[in-house]
Records
---
Amino acid sequence: MDSADAVVQDRKPIKVDKVRIIKHWTKERRAKAIPRDLVIDQRGLGYLKWPDGSLRPHGHDISPEITPNGHSISPFASGRGGRGGGKKSSDKTPPSISNMDPAEGTTIGESHTFEATVTDSGGVASVTFKIQKNDSTYVNSFPAGQSFGGVWGANFHGFTNGGWKWWVEAQDRAGNVRISTTVNFSVNTGPANVPVSHDEWTAGGIIQTASGRLYFEMPDDATLSTWSGYVCSATVADDEGTAGRSLIITAAHCVYDDVNKKFARNALFIPNQAGTTGRGLDGNCGNDPMGCWIPSFGVVDVRWTDETFPDNMAWDYAFYVVPDEDAHVGTSASSDALDVAAQSLTLSFTQPSFDFTHALGYSYSEDPKFMYCADNLTNEPMYGRNWWLEICGLTGGSSGGPWVLPMDTTSGSGPIIGINSWGLVIGGYNLPGMAGSKLYGTSAECVFDAAKEAVVSSSPAQGEAGVAVTCP
């Protein structure tokens, strides 16, 4: 049975424009859909990562920097440059040290990535991290490695409960030395949570019924003459009783093309596709647990539309609006309202604790499995505008999936604190780790509130099916 056959299986007829979208997403088109997978390289340039591993420049025309093996450029190089031989330098200014993580008063777990921004106009020669437990006279001394934008870091394991302190010693190429202030932090190893890089979610629950695969198209260039199919992940959000619609939260890069400056078209959402009785890419809405749902339009922050990735990474969150009528096709659902049929997760706009966090999504390579990673939440170290899960190995297609903290693994539920956003590449090779868009301290709540009320034309022009919201 193809997607056209699935149209007649719905409980009530849907509008012609929605039927067209269902018919559009044939098995062949779904199979050709590309994960909209954004990455940043060691130069700070944004790329779209294709399924074959190739990188396509995003918003620029600079070719990716590919190395013959993944270790010829290291995210944590030794950083031990020369000490400024030759003529004696007139430089008397030591390096500057800032953005130390962990910060004063922070509580960390058994392991943590320590980072600090160290810069010097003449070049930094070495950075050393000094770590001491409060009840000990012994000082641990470790060399740090340089990553991006002046950030130096090192990962440490084996911390024990109690009070600790640390400081940074940095030397520039002229021999000038700076010692930072001492930062106090505490360690609470808590329950033994085991980090997970990339595994199938088998606990079920609301997180599985509310999350799904998202298909859509975006233009190949500004002429809008050709469009390509993409795939992301998304989750039904608790819209606090908003009448007449349901909201699904995803990444802004799955809603609005920030290069060609147009909204996506032909969006199709399939909740709990992991529960299909067919194949994930078979084009049949009749064998998915709740069928397929057709969003009407998207809502993003205007700053996502004005800038281009990675400059707009702080606003990589968005919503699709799904009407409560004329939006469902395929397997009969318990309600015409998506948030009733699939259930929903609450959004948390408050400061989360830096604790064990689950990120989930439909990795393209694992179709149709629902995948997850889990690790202690930290701040993204290079730009400081996103959350970060250090060992996360979710692959393309998981963009837009939810970050849940805390996760109740018995009910498969919890508040969403962020959204899968982007990853890192060095010399063309993937690095572990995933950045997540922050809902706390951003305009996310403003965009959410706007999505509850926003309207667009019933027949929008190509690339205009959306609203860009101006938020404080």
Note: The chain has two domains: 3-62+196-469, 96-187.
---
Amino acid sequence: MRIKIRLYLILLIVILILPLTAPVYSESPYIVKEGNVIEELSVSNTDVYVYGYVKLLNLGTGDVKVFEKGRVNKLRVGAGNVEIYGEVRDVQIGLGDVTLYGVVKGDIEVGLGNVVLKPNSTVEGNIRVVGEVKREEGSVVKGEIESTQLPEIPFISRIFKNKEFFRRIPLHIRMGERKPKVSKLVLFFVFLFVSFLILALFPHATERGVKYLSSKPMNSFLLSLVLLAISFGILILLVITIIGIILTPLVIIGVFIFYLFGTTIFYTTIGTHILKLLNIENPNLVLSYFVASIPLILINIFVPYGGLISFVSLVFGLGAAFKSAFPKLVIFNL
């Protein structure tokens, strides 16, 4: 459980940096030439090739290749694969695989994916991954290896192998219409009001959801994906029948209601942990919600790529909302 919670936090952190990387966008690939030294590089929706030296590399979505003479101190990727032929100090990946031919001076941490160690590769720190660690003969790991195998769920595994899926999630936010700021402000206050109603009407259910998400974040994440897959399958079956045409809107409305509830639980959970870090024990649900929701919703609405926050809240909050509403119902032991 400890590794799952830790890797959940890594996954959350690296995905939440995506909105912050959006202003620095380049055509793919972005190349750091040999001899160049960059203090901090933040890009998204592109591949990065490193021949020079980057002290801090934040990549939202895309692949990274660190070539033989390349060096990176801190490497963080939201969704994408990493190949290292040179030297990296620390690696944090949200969703994707790490293939090592060279040297990692510190730790490798992967939220969901695999680590492949080629011959003569070296990891001087620890490896923590939700997935597999594949070691070929001649590879060296000086620290500990902690890996957790998750159940193989068809459809979900194919999603994670498709990088374009993550690039297109916030497409309506990144490439959509430029709406007046007034309408966005209205959307902001409406969302706050609806969430406040949920907290006021269902405080105990919200509290159950917060406890579940805090104690079993990866279970909530996987359950959300299972529920989305089931909902998608039901919709496909419904639209090909006459009665389904009538029921389809009801299914969509039901998923949307759970999305709102799950988002409220997600923000409240984040706020609760923030307040606990400030030594505020047993914080009020409403206070916890507003501490996290106000900045995150503002980023979601006003910042390019901010729609990824909606995606993160969906894939972590939906499962918690379902377990809160149906605490005795078990799906895939989640």
Note: The chain is about 50% helix and 20% strand.
---
Amino acid sequence: MKARWIVILLSCFSSTGLLAQEENTVVASGRVLNADTKEPLVARITYQSLPYGNRMGVINNSTFSFPLFDGERYSITVEATGYASAKYMIDPAEATDGKIVKDIELHHTTGNVSKKHSAGTVMRLDNLIFEQAKSKIDPSSYQELDLLVAMMNEHKSMVIQLEGHTDYAGDPAKNQKLSQQRVDEVKEYLVKKGISKERVKTKAFGGTMPLSHDNTPEARRLNRRVEVRILQN
């Protein structure tokens, strides 16, 4: 009888542990879309846990869904022939009801960053990722910055202004400082790649110019950005 009660208790603890693990697991999901037509686009979607890639997987489809375990952040890379690849970081801390839903739009390789822009045009570096609350650029962002370098090399008279934004949560002075540090890091990368420092201006806005005032993880992610303003072309 005693042995049977031990087995029952162990089973209960085991079931409770599994339920807790399931409750603590965040699921990331979304669609891959053609940025121009908004139609589904079959792509190669590679995801891996950060920083060491202990968990990883590959999905070949126009949709994706995978779990984020143990509170780890994940990087996701989306590639399709004829399109510029996209890289993002997914943070389980930004989940709502255990879910993160993100649609990813891919641009044709002749679009977005690589094409010529007139003075006054502003474009967002969607694939530029920084370490959380830091100014260090994640290596997965280098490809997008290299496209910006290529564009400036193609248009020798182009002058740009890098504009840094954070979300508006937290200390405004710290947000201002962080946004300045981030655009300074991007400028340093461009200069190291051969772009004259006189062609790259910087301006920091902190959290004063949010794209969204919603108090949601997606809105905060949208507000944390670096934009490129074409001053001269």
Note: Residues 1-109 form a domain with the Immunoglobulin-like fold (CATH 2.60.40.1120).
